[in-house]
């Protein structure tokens, strides 16, 4: 199948397939006599693996490590688990940071009158971390 068909079947865009090939994450495709990329089931499985790992937020460097472990039939599952646990910790840290950012922004928005007045606790908070004012004027 050509790159368009591989993209449609794998859920990975043709542009990303070319990129994954260029960085060595995906083996270079075979070429037809006319020079077009040709993909098979093995390529689709690899693209599906990459797509799912990316959906779970793994950075490309870790996707490459996971791919290497996936292909290594003598791997220790402990290595795979360690990569996953490290990624889980990173995701949990990011989630906590997002919660804190949302709470800060929610606090600023709660103190904004949202009317025709020019004073705005949100903008004040963005310019220097000022605490929202509690005026009722």
UniProtKB/TrEMBL annotation:
Which organism was this protein described from? Candidimonas nitroreducens
Q: Which UniProt keywords apply?
A: Coiled coil, Cytoplasm, DNA-binding, Transcription, Transcription regulation
Recorded GO CC terms? cytoplasm
Instruction: Please indicate if the UniProt record lists Coiled coil as a keyword.
Output: yes
Gene Ontology terms: biological process? positive regulation of DNA-templated transcription
The gene that this protein is the product of is: cueR
Predominant location: cytoplasm
Q: Which residues form the HTH merR-type domain?
A: 1-69
Instruction: State the SUPFAM superfamilies in the record.
Output: Putative DNA-binding domain (SSF46955)
Task: State the compartments where it is located.
Answer: Cytoplasm
The organism's place on the tree of life at top rank: Bacteria
Name this polypeptide is given = Cu(I)-responsive transcriptional regulator
List the molecular function annotations (GO) for this entry.
copper ion binding; DNA binding; DNA-binding transcription factor activity
The UniProt entry, under Pfam families, shows: MerR_1
Q: Write out the coiled-coil annotation as residue ranges.
A: 81-108
Give a yes or no for keyword DNA damage in this entry: no
InterPro entries with a match to the protein in the record: CueR, DNA-bd_dom_put_sf, MerR-type_HTH_dom, MerR_fam
